[in-house]
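Record 1 of the preview.
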Amino acid sequence: METDLFQNEPRLFERLCQPFWLGFGFGDVKKNRGAPGIDGVTIEAFNDNLEEELTQLSQELASWNYKPQPVRRVEIDKPDGGVRLLGIPCIRDRVVHATLKRLLEPILTPHFSDHSFGFIPGRNQTQAVREAQRIVSGGKQWVVDIDLSKFFDRVHQDRLIGRLGQHIDDKRILRIIGMILRSGIMKDGLVSPTLEGTVQGSPLSPLLSNVVLDELDKELESRELEFCRFADDCNIFVKTPKAAERVMASISRFIEKKLKLVVNQEKSQVARSEKVKFLGMTVVNGHLAISVKPLNRAMAKVKALTPRGTHLRLEDAIEEINRWYRGWSSYYSMTQYPAQLKKIEAHIRRRLRSRLVDQQKSRRNLFNKLVKRKVPRKLAATSAFSNHRRWALSHTRAVERAYPNRWFIEEVGQFIRSSAQLEHWFDVRLWIRLV
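->
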């Protein structure tokens, strides 16, 4: 009912111009935080003069004096190499983007495919992964993994506006979106026009990306293919390698000829499910497992959180590890191979033991510390006066006996128990496994 009300409302543009709605948009921007755009105005500064800013923005929109400023170009390194091009709009422009998102989401979302899980209220990555598992378990173990090259930078703007026009009656809204898409990019003080693409970094872009790729969803559904899509990450599932190759060829043609996008042939593949990574997970024999790359990145993250030569207190180091591990494991806990999580947690313990060894400064100090920790003198001497370095020592019987798993609770438990973080299930699980 609400969708029909919005869709048939001829005054959708007037809603956008109201300070009331712009205030909701600013609330979303403030919640998501973020850096300032090319004008240098921060969220805090905008908030300090909120009423005046929203009033002025409202008047500019209503009188068509509003002109989106170019976005600030930022390059972010990707975990697996290369860079991701992000655009940072000014705060006032982000308020308009976020308000548009609020107004358009109730209109557009009901039309999206049930197989699309990205940036849609009530849907998430976990649901997408579990749906992929269900399909593979049903017998479709061959995956057509299509990678779109620089998707956000290559969206065909005219086609996007045309798709929006099928659901939005107010042409003034389409005009505003067109102005946003063509606002330009500033890098090193120079402004470049944006004749294609959407701003990856705008609150509105995820919704617009679903509008673009919904056309792909509808094509796959018309062919009665089973698939899962999260943003531009799309996997199609079939029963045989021959069918997979056929689907790869035909869908690639559809994407490039009809949607005017580019398929990255080097990263796209046809393979069995256990060879394909989808949102950091893979389906092995019908069971979910963490992919190799996320596991390797997690090991590297633990190393970065426990650097050599740091003066950070052990309690503070554990707090930082817990903060990261809570978020990481809250997603990857869907793995059905518990040994993968145990591997990360064992690595955490060994890194901490290695740091404890390094704190002793000398072999004699290490020997005395081990003996003080009730390690037999002969065993302590064998480890402390060996030629092993700190990393090898961290895995010796003497050090593990001096600092057994339960030690991490007994010695730093007071700090942990006094922390509100202990209430989080994943923190509790970490400490249980440390024991």
